[in-house]
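Hi U.,

Before I forget, here's the chain from the pilot set. I'm dumping it here mostly so it's searchable later in email.
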Amino acid sequence: PEPVDGTAPAATPAPEADRVAEADATAPTPRVPSPAPVNVRINRLPTIGDDAAPETGAEEGTPEVAAIRPDGEAAAEGEAPVAEASVIDPGAPAIARNAVEFATADGALMSVILIDVGLGLPSTRALEAVGAPVTVALDAGLEDAPRQARRFRERGYEVAIIPNLPAGAQAQDVAVSLSVTLEEVTDAVALLDSTGSDFQTDRGTMAQVAAIASQSGLGVVTYARGLNTARRIAQQNGVPSGLVFRSIDPNTTDPLAVARALDQAAFRARQDGSAIVLVPATDPMVAGLAAWAEEARASEITLAPLSAVLVSG
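Structure:
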């Protein structure tokens, strides 16, 4: 019968020989870890769910260790863990300092830039579902642009900045505005002309943007226009640059239309060696992008972060 106080009765010690035999029988069999699956085309990112608590794998009794951000601050309780920062020369160009790790692959590269269209930016959980190193474009005019840039960069995504330049700005105005922006947002890899008329339509403005990008070590992304004067100005200043091949209409809700646009961008990448496509950061678009990547439609290209495409030239 069970003791009244709930304690188990003491066991009668077994003979020494029995104890040795029992230990041999119960000894754990060494486990050989199975090799992790390798995807040679889509460079997948680590799991970084927004709300779910990370699985640390710590055994019971192991003291908790707070995640430390690259700036030295401890992560808030319940916040997703931040990616461990690589040791990079602080004097390196921004496009190298803020680039995510990427295993360069042979063949064509395709970079997808998710851009806010006034409906908010995607959560890191939604980006995780894409399973590819997408780039997030942030409007420098957003009040919390510096915080958002740091948030995405810490979670393993590159950031492009859309300059918030005053209408009809002169060269000096552009210099002052961009200087203030880049002092506040320090996690970007490139400046993006999101519409083709943010800064590239005026030669003087473009020259000023290229000069500042060169000094800061940023890349520049513009649209193909005429003789591509904007890109030539960037190249003359030694700035890594790229052209937007396709910008998907934010009003598109048909998943097949999204897939066709991405297929076209992949086809261009195979022709030219690389391609950049802008995708609105809406839920249907992000879901369509995730489905397209999951179905391996990019089997002949590699989805790559923006920095890799710009540097490859």
